[in-house]
């Protein structure tokens, strides 16, 4: 495996800087984090119109820099013979500064899907490309507008 230098050195440094495309080139595949889907504040579904799977990421995993990414949401233990268990996604990593969040989260919105019941399931998120860094928005409508643009960009990148 080829090592490339990020600020902290190596592939982990690239990931932690949000340079997920370079990390994928070095790994030979997209970087992924795994965890169990847990209940969040439900703002994605109820307030913003983008229901997200909130991952309780496995401790010690390299999580990309705060921001929004295009990627894939995958069920890591699908039932045999089951249908679709992988979806293109817009992924948010960070503290949700618009809502004064303090804890980093990894939240994935399966593009154009609001029918998935994933609580308690083991999932993975693959990071394909960084869309933008995290920022605080003046109000909820400004956040929704940015999320709409992020989802459109993720859809383009994952097509």
TrEMBL record:
Entry-linked InterPro entries: Riboflavin_kinase, Riboflavin_kinase_bac/euk, Riboflavin_kinase_dom_sf
Family membership: Belongs to the RibF family.
Lineage: Bacteria, Bacillati, Actinomycetota, Actinomycetes, Streptosporangiales
Keyword presence, Hydrolase: no
Pathway info: Cofactor biosynthesis; FAD biosynthesis; FAD from FMN: step 1/1; Cofactor biosynthesis; FMN biosynthesis; FMN from riboflavin (ATP route): step 1/1
Organism encoding this protein: Nocardiopsis composta
Function text: Catalyzes the phosphorylation of riboflavin to FMN followed by the adenylation of FMN to FAD.
Stated name of the protein: Bifunctional riboflavin kinase/FMN adenylyltransferase
GO biological process: FMN biosynthetic process; riboflavin biosynthetic process
Classification via Pfam families: Flavokinase (PF01687)
Keywords for the protein's UniProt record, in alphabetical order: ATP-binding, FAD, Flavoprotein, FMN, Kinase, Multifunctional enzyme, Nucleotide-binding, Nucleotidyltransferase, Transferase
Catalytic reaction annotation: FMN + ATP + H(+) = FAD + diphosphate; riboflavin + ATP = FMN + ADP + H(+)
EC number: 2.7.1.26, 2.7.7.2
GO molecular function, one term: riboflavin kinase activity
Domain (Riboflavin kinase): residue spans on this chain: 26-159
